[in-house]
Amino acid sequence: MPDSLPPDSSRMKFGIGQPVPRNEDPVLLQGHGRYTDDLQLPGQLWCVIVRSPYGHGLLRGIDTTPALETPGVVAVYTGADMQAAGYGTLHCMMPAPGLTDIQRPVLATDKVRFVGDPIAFVVAETRDAAKDGAEAVLVDIDPLPAVTDATDALAPGAPQLYDHIPGNLVQDFHFGDSDKVAEAFRNAAHAVKLDLRSNRIVVCAMEPRSAVAEYDAAGDRYTLHVGSQGVFGMRASIAKELLKVPVEKLRILTGNVGGSFGMKAGAYPEYLCLLHAAKMLGRPVKWTDARTDSFLSDYHGRDHEVTAELALDADGKFLAVRLTAAANIGAYLSSVGPLMGTSGFMRNVQSNYATPLIEVSTKSAVTNTSPVTAYRGAGRPEGNYFMERLIEAAGAQMGIDPIELRRRNHIKPDQFPFSAITGSKYDGGEFSAVMDKALAAADWDGFAARKAASTAAGKLRGRGIGNFLECTAPPSKEMGGIRFGEDGSVTIITGTLDYGQGHWTPFAQVLHQTLGVPFDRIRLVQGDSDKLIAGGGTGGSKSLMASGAAIVEASAKVVDKARVAAAHMLEAAEADIEFDPHAEGGARFSIAGTDRGIDIMSLAAQLRGARDLPPEVPDTLDVDHIFEAAPMAFPNGCHIVELEVDPDTGVVHIDRYVTVNDFGVLVNPMLVAGQAHGGIAQGIGQALMERTNYSEDGQFLSGSYSDYAVPRAVDVPSFEFISHGVPAKTNPLGVKGCGEAGCAGSLPAVMNALVDALSERGVKHIDMPATPEVVWRAIHEAA
Question: How many whole angstroms separate alpha carbon 523 and alpha carbon 505?
């Protein structure tokens, strides 16, 4: 099926389906963005955090006197001070059956549990003075044995992080019918088993975390300027859980955000520290993380050890898939807890295959490492990676082409709507057609000639395929506010938040398409909690499904109000008023069968200045609307990679990359391709480069860019992006979400290609990250 677009969009320069450049780019590219660290408030003080230098230890005492005597230092606060103030704790905000919750104090009081654990904070007149004061704080810690790996943490005799969490087991998750799955494996003609690892990732957002807190004593109200993924939810969690005040006592403001990928979604200890200091000292207090501290204190991503198994009948039909995992959640629970390695695995290992039985058993462990949170995909890339690696192994074992194995097991178009064993209900898709289009675009059949050329050059060449299907987060309640300004602007107010995606332009395209207001007059407000009545934030690839649907429904309410107003202005019956959002000269309300009418912008202006309107006639076209939510969507696609390996050095070079995707309706194809590119680059980084490394005593050994490699331009190829859109039936725009899909397809495609290249040297499997050293060792150990 070709990409489907709403009627008339093809003739609209700024309508749905057009590759409109991002509105914010001229501002950002000229350096005029406003990030949190750009704020300099009158009377502002600086905060620096004192962090634990040990991975695990008993906190015996803190001497703040030397810090208080440091020139420029205004105050020093410890965990005892925060406890005395009666604040709440950080804990998991997401329902998780069987989870033993951890009430994390904002500052450590009894124990430190990872290198970087906040112990105290210093507030001073300048940043340098605050740094000097932080270095002067004397901390007495008795080191304890540490454990940094999930499997080791769950082993008998491992160092215990908490008295109330025996064996470090914070959740024992199980999904599926164990008896039926076991029977399927007993009766299977073939079964494959792989030990796989989804390596821990340092998020490395371009903008480090930063925040500025203010307190208005007269109004007893706080304001926090902070990078986030949604101000509405951030306000609720900080106000209710930490400050213990009504939500109206706190305002969250977020300007431009330089990346997050899940990491900035939840609250952190530093935010409450700043709010406390601002109240106690009566002055704004600012904190910006140093990059090295970001490596230590930001939540990390991934970190799962998995035994994956697939049962097949004699014809290669999938009978059951079974995942047995150990998940490292770090020293504390993030706001989403162990979601990624539990329900994240469960929903997404199904992928686009008609697998009748799925079992997931995950033991989540606390360790002496930075807490783990959602990272671009939050279990979706991992689930797809496990399935695709299993399929390659099954094909090799059975002597069946893995492409054919995939095709035999794809959910067919006549099986929709498809009810997955996990509870997901797929509304549609053309999975085999997407894969076939990718094979053709990648010149799959021409691989042999390219491999021969690589061999002649002394290189190993491999090709890999990565089918994927993601279960997006279901859209929560979302605001669709529309305001007609006195200056002729039209402002969208919604509770998702742009931290690099480019929401302004596609949201404006939706409003322009549905309401016909001039594209260049549309503004967007997302980052002010005072202006929101609902907001689910951005995460789980749901923003356009949520905010887009809210805009569509809010536009319909504007039209309803405007029809009443136009009938009054034109002295006609409401039933005779017609609306053409794309009339010549602008969106227009007119009397049917006549040339009498009024355009929507003029109507809004006339209402603003009108007097003595009848009670049934609205005095404004402004609308506040809440979209009630929609089911999750299921973006899917197929990535194909060709790469070369230098056997003498282990260096991997990705030579060709093709991706065919079903993201439903593409509101802005250019931005969708950009999102895919970013996700692919991060997938390549995880697969080949990004390795976190802790010592036995919990020291973080990859805490800088000298030790931790992220992809650079030279490390990624040109991507061929092709769309094969099947509109979703579960939201009014037919969109499916695209922000995390690049990771879901790239992990399996890259690693399958690498194993294919190394197979001629006897390597059957290699774990991520496959750095040059790891690849070189694998080649030589196989030899």
Answer: 9
9-33+474-627: CATH topology: Aldehyde Oxidoreductase; domain 4 (3.30.365)
| Residue 474 DSSP symbol | P
Q: Encode pLDDT of 625-652 as tens digits.
A: 999 988 899 999 999 999 999 999 999 9
Query: What's the pLDDT score for residue 12?
Result: 64
SS3 110: coil
- Measure Cα distances from 219 to 284, 532, 614, 761 in Å: 15, 20, 38, 71
360, 361, 362, 363: CA torsion to nearest 10: 180
**3 state DSSP class of 661:** strand
SS3 344: helix
Contact, 256 vs 205, CB < 8 A?
A: no
Domain 146-208+291-412 CATH class label: alpha beta
Burial class (CB in 10 A: 0-12, 13-18, 19+), 86: exposed
CATH for the 36-144+209-288 domain, from 3.90.1170.50, 3.40.605.10, 3.40.190.10, 1.10.3720.10: 3.90.1170.50
Average pLDDT along the chain: 95
Read off the pLDDT of residues 46-95 as tens digits, 9 standing for 90 and up.
999 999 999 999 999 999 999 999 999 999 999 999 999 999 999 998 88
Query: Where are the domains positioned within the chain?
Result: 9-33+474-627, 36-144+209-288, 146-208+291-412
